[in-house]
Amino acid sequence: MIQDWDQFLLPYKQTVDELKVKLRGVRQEYLNQNQRSPIEFVTGRVKPVDSIQEKMQRRHVSEERIEQDMQDIAGLRIMCQFVEDIYEVVDILRRRSDMTILEERDYIHNEKPSGYRSYHIVIEYPVQLVTGEKKILAEIQVRTLAMNFWATIEHSLNYKYQGAFPETLSRRLQRAAEAAFKLDEEMSEIREEILEAQPSMATQLRGPNDS
Ligand code: 0O2
């Protein structure tokens, strides 16, 4: 039995905190060089204990197997402006030596039946504890702003309907997901045209609050 969840989750919190700093640092590196960053913003969370317990029941994961079988207790999200940026971010992550990629799931080209799209990466990340090094699994979700918009709303509706959407709502959400993806495709085409016409725009496509 996990007696003290706060204690158990401490290395996961450290993982999320460290990765948030590092991934935001990637964005800052681009901006400092006056370049457009493929990372728009980064969020992270440790999965709440009730969600962990619910998933353990649903997936038949025992407490002995939790560290190996629950890949998303530590979760990071990287938001990008364009679909192309997602694959650039994935390449950046593949080149890093401070984490090991264990698994990649492309839910962009293989969207989920719900309409969900994102690129998922499961990594092993070493945290340094007083007792020594501990390897922690973390899930990094990389998605566009449009994919994030859809997923955030669908997630909150899911909470309300406990996953049992009425058929009409499911269909509308699938249509909305397609519309969001169409928007991503349109934006990519517009971006290509702008860049071809005016290469200097690359540095100008930056966020409003960036110095
Ligand atoms: P949270 O933290 O509240 O977002 P499973 O968890 O069983 O669905 P699996 O194989 O463990 O699936 O992992 P998968 O599919 O790679 O990633 C699960 C996570 O992806 C979910 O976490 C969501 O964040 C996101 N996700 C997957 N499918 C959907 C979807 O249809 N809609 C939305 N909005 N998000 C999705 P959790 O566990 O839901 O928790």
UniProtKB/TrEMBL annotation:
Q: Pathway listed for it?
A: Purine metabolism; ppGpp biosynthesis; ppGpp from GTP: step 1/2
Q: Which residues cross the membrane?
A: none
According to the entry, every stretch annotated as the RelA/SpoT domain falls at 44-165
Q: Where is this region: Disordered?
A: 197-211
Q: Which InterPro entries match?
A: GTP_Pyrophosphokinase (IPR052366), NT_sf (IPR043519), RelA_SpoT (IPR007685)
Report the domain of life of the source organism: Bacteria
Gene3D superfamilies membership: Beta Polymerase, domain 2 (3.30.460.10), Nucleotidyltransferase (1.10.287.860)
Q: Write the record's keywords in alphabetical order, separated by commas.
A: ATP-binding, Kinase, Nucleotide-binding, Transferase
What terms describe the molecular function in GO for this protein?
Answer: ATP binding; kinase activity
| Subunit (UniProt) | Homotetramer.
The UniProt family comment states: Belongs to the RelA/SpoT family.
- What name does the UniProt record give this protein? GTP pyrophosphokinase
This chain's source organism reads Levilactobacillus bambusae
